[in-house]
Amino acid sequence: MRLFMANKRKVLGLLPMLLLVACSHSGPQFYMLEASPAIAPVSGLAKTTQIGLGPIHMPEYLNRPQMVIAVGEHQYRLDDDKRWAEHLEQNVSRVLTQQLAGLLGVDQVLRYPWAQRQVIDYQLVLDILSFHHTAGKGVELKAQWQLRKAEQVLKSQQFDCQLSNSDAAEAIVASQSQCLTQLAEQIQKNF
Question: pLDDT averaged over the chain?
Answer without folding.
Answer: 89
